[in-house]
Amino acid sequence: MTDDRLIIGRILAPHGVRGEMKVQSLSGEDAHFKALSRVWLKKSGREFEMKVRGVRGALPNLIIAFENVDSPEEAGKFRGAEVLAERDQAAIRKDGEFYYADLTGCMIVYNSVEMAEVKSVWDNGNCHMFECELKDGGVVQIPFQNQFIGDVDTDRKQIELLVDWILE
Q1: What residue segments make up the domains of the chain, in order of their start?
Q2: Taking a C-beta distance cutoff of 8 angstroms, is the pair 127, 143 a contact?
Q3: Which ranges form a coiled coil (predicted)?
């Protein structure tokens, strides 16, 4: 994946008999899906460039169709695939929102000291979580919540940690 593409969704399952697929929007928005003309589907380490034939429905029931995918059997091959789009085709970020790709690789900084690096970001259902590698090689998870995280500067690739005990 290049820095110019972001994961915007996930293929859930085939839909109907014409090769359409149910798709989950990871941003919780759907307007950007309806403007897509091409995406990449990533599954098992392989990427497939796909031309979008159409998108219909509304959250949480978005349905996407691709050129040259005309049956439920063909659509089923993409179950679980990540949907990637060019950065300028992703949902527009509001103030205080970040793309996961921009947070990955940031340094967790406490009192001006780099403590760890963000290796991945995910949503655990209650909040977003950072999986971080400590300087000594250990791994910790840090909730992306105001009581733990201060300023986030993706340009400088730094995230302020407000309490150090969470690294123990």
Answers
A1: 5-88, 100-167
A2: yes
A3: none
Query: Among candidates 143, 139, 135, 136, which has minimal Cα distance to 161?
Result: 143
Q: CATH top-level class for 100-167? A: mainly beta
Q: Token pair for residue 31?
A: 């307007």
- Helix (H) / strand (E) element for 157: namely none
In the chain the first and final C-alpha atoms are separated, in Å, by 33
Of 47, 50, 43, 59, residue with least CA distance to 20: 50
Token match 């994946």: residue? 1
5-88 CATH pick, 2.170.270.10, 2.40.30.60, 3.40.50.1010, 3.40.1190.20: 2.40.30.60
pTM: 0.72
Sign of CA dihedral 142, 143, 147, 149: positive
